[in-house]
Amino acid sequence: MKVSLSSRGSFRFDGKEIPFTPGQTIMDAVLAAGEYIPHLCHNPEFAPHGSCRVCVVGVGGRQVSACTAPAAEGMVVDSSSEEIQGTRRAILQMLFVEGNHICPACEKSGACQLQAVAYYTGMLAPHFTHFFPRREVDASHPDFIIDFNRCILCELCVRASRDWDGKRVFGISGRGLASHLVIDSPTGRLGDSSFAATDKAAHVCPVGAILPKHRGYEVPIGERLYDREPISLVGDVAAHEEA
Amino acid sequence: MSDPSIGQVTEFVAESLARHGRNPDYLLQHLIALQHRFSHVPATAVDLLATELGVTRTQIRAAIDFYAFLHETPRGDFDILFSDNITDRMLGNQRLMRLLCERLGVEPGVPRADGRVTVGPTSCTGMCDQGPALLVNGMAVTRLDAQRVDRIADLVEMGTPLEHWPGAYFVVEDNIRRKGLLLSNAATDAAGLRAMLEKGAEAALAEVERSGLRGRGGAGFTTALKWKFCREAPGGERFVVCNADEGEPGTFKDRVLLTSYADLMFEGMTICAGVIGARRGFLYLRGEYRYLVPHLEAVLARRRAQGLLGESILGHDGFDFDIAIHLGAGAYICGEESALIESLEGKRGVTRKRPPFPVTSGYQGNPTVVNNVETFLAAARVVQWGGYWFRGEGTDKSAGSKILSVSGDVARPGIYEYPFGTPVHRVLADCGATNPQAVQISGAAGATLAPAEFDRIIAFEDLPTAGSFMVFDASRDMLDMVRNFAHFFAHESCGSARS
Ligand SMILES: Cc1cc2nc3c(=O)[nH]c(=O)nc-3n(C[C@H](O)[C@H](O)[C@H](O)COP(=O)(O)O)c2cc1C
Ligand code: SF4
Fold first, then answer.
1. B343/B462 same-domain check
2. Which whole number is the average pLDDT over B420-436?
3. Which ligand sits closest to the CA of A160?
4. Which of B41, B66, B91 is the endpoint of a domain?
5. Which end of chain A has fewer CB atoms < 10 Å from its terminal CB, N or C?
6. Smallest Cβ distance to B353: which of A50, A168, A175?
7. Are B266 and B377 in the same domain?
């Protein structure tokens, strides 16, 4: 297909004009224009996944996920109304109660996207009843731990390992509420898999589920990425040193 | 059942590989066969399949974990699952399940220590008009009562093979109560198929377009447009998929169509193949309807013998098309078309992000038409009798008829076919609903109607539905229904929401 200049278009995003080229999603165009739409499972280095739904936006009376919806000429995108922010908050609240996210006791606090996006949407409390699931911590690997309590099933590690590292170390098993992350090794433990500290999969987790060992609190709480500036200005943690 | 020896498992896997081949797409079919044979998928089989099909052990385990009918540990000689739709509950399934558990000395969902039996609940098995129902080793038993349950306990204790259980237990009735455009005539002499071959694919597609036919599986997408998009999509091989997953609680009309109108459905698929240029098709059949496989395979075999499937269909050189049956294994989400395609490819049935839609990138990334059973049936008749014949019934936006699955507090539960535009109160009067308090249309995710809304009509523009129509009389506590549905979604959702 020939892409002429005239096929460039633009749409309105919370009142601002955002240019796009054909093939871009709403998310692509908005991020390229230096604006922000909250997201967890999205990482521009990987194909869109569309599963966390935190990037929900309003388009023509419908709610769509910005990371998968193609940008179109003249569309009007709502990313800041109370209705949209309320939907996002509800999704985040469900994520918080489904796992065990104890921010004050988490090594990732201040550099965690789940926490930062919750701040961005104005989430003050989890609202729903906590599930307090019993999940394990796998410390079998020499360089990394994996704390399943914090996993939000974004599948970034699954995709990174499969599409980038060529290893398929991670997978998702079960369904519905019982969906969970699994590790491909004879014992199911990380230490017995082919996972390595240099893997892409070791550096994409948006929360504190996959963490390096032998380092802790190097940057004091209060001085971390999202302590300094909101996520809407600095973006994904994976794009920063602290990841 | 004693644990199978490694030799037995190895031999069975070898047979299964010989039958289905080494294509990873057939992983799920291998797993279903293993489950059926050994009441679980033995670890040895997981290792063998991982090597033979070139997939990871984790992928196999994740699939076993995903599908409710697959297990890594034995369920025993008899795996008994009580259908747990709200309509089964209204008919007392919980009391009957407790009774059976007591008689057999088991806890729900926990295999008995001697390896004889497991008893547990499962999502709606599509027998709402003849419940309470259960599945024993995948076979449907209907119209349960205390006496039947008592007798089943004896049969289990005696270890009586299913072939020697009373045949009456396994009788599944059609219960067709009202026939309309489609149900009034089951006969087919391949007239639709012949019409397409005579007039050409484009003329057939034009008839479908003229008919205004929209998908009967719930979403209501215009069928002609779907076929056209697929026909015009760039790419090599094309596929036709019939969605017979019928997982919506309270829906059972596809079961009846598969039982008594299978020829018409296959004819619709074959016509679609002619229009889009497909050589292969799949019938994705929910695991709960596995008892229909021998019947459906027989129909397919007869159609091949009649020259209606296979190479050079009806003597037309280059018109080659055949249909394979793929079984599901207990997962409502696999009715969603992109999850269905994942499942067809042997994987966990998790929805894909869209776009791209299946018409451009479906099975193995190829252009694919996915339609509901009823849609294919209607398409076959439309090509035979013309678009105007179909259009003659229904409303402007909803042409033709809709087949409803009516259950709950009614005198005559079963299948009712009405022109679109029929008000709810008409259906209630016909099925003998006394003192209805509410109607739940279109399953757990559908609409709950109070009596003030009974003059609303069955139509895409008012009450769109795949056909589930559950009636609750004044004696019912509607919160029971809400709790039942909430439980259903917690269990059946794919754990992500890419719809
Ligand atoms: C959660 C979910 C479950 C579904 N289950 C079914 C089903 O059991 N049978 C069906 O035909 N369509 C089902 N659908 C609709 C399919 O995705 C798809 O729209 C349909 O098969 C297309 O065929 P049609 O155009 O003939 O209706 C389901 C959709 C969703 C979102
Ligand atoms: S471990 Fe982290 S990257 Fe992997 S799925 Fe869980 S939250 Fe996502």
1. no
2. 97
3. 2
4. B66
5. N
6. A50
7. yes
CB contact under 8 A, B495 and A183: no
User: What top-level class would CATH report for the domain A134-214?
Assistant: alpha beta
Say if ligand 1 is within 6 A of residue B372 CB.
yes
Q: Residue A181: closest CA among chain B residues belongs to which residue?
A: B62
Residues B92 and B106 in one domain: yes
Residue B234 maps to a domain? yes
Domain boundaries, position B232: 176-391
**Average model confidence (pLDDT) across chain A:** 93
Ligand 2 centroid, distance to A146 Cα (angstroms): 9
A153 alpha carbon – ligand 2 mean position (Å): 5
Q: Quickly state the pLDDT bin for A7 (edges 50, 70, 90).
A: low
Question: What is the reported pLDDT for B397?
Answer: 95
Given this model, what pLDDT does residue A3 score?
Answer: 44
CATH of domain A8-133: 3.10.20.740
Identify whether residues B96 and B194 lie together within a single domain. no
The mean pLDDT of chain B is 95
Asked, for residue B93, whether it belongs to a domain, the answer is yes
Chain A hits for B495, Cβ within 8 Å? 153, 172, 174-179
Does B84 contact ligand 1 (Cβ within 6 A)? Answer: no
Same-domain pairing of B29 and B141? no
- Reported as a pLDDT band with limits 50, 70 and 90, residue B499 is very low
Count of domains for chain B: 4
B166-222 residue pLDDT tens: 999 999 999 999 999 999 988 888 999 999 999 999 999 999 999 999 999 988 999
The answer to whether the CB of A116 is under 6 A from ligand 2 is: no
Res. B360: pLDDT tops 80: yes
The ligand 2 atom at the shortest distance from the C-alpha of residue A201 is 3
Q: Kindly state whether residue B73 falls inside one of the protein's structural domains.
A: no
Q: CATH 3.10.20.740 spans which residues of chain A?
A: 8-133
Q: What is the pLDDT of residues A105-126, one digit of tens each?
A: 999 999 999 999 999 999 999 9
Confirm whether B128 is domain-assigned. yes
Name the band, by pLDDT with cuts 50, 70 and 90, for residue B353.
confident
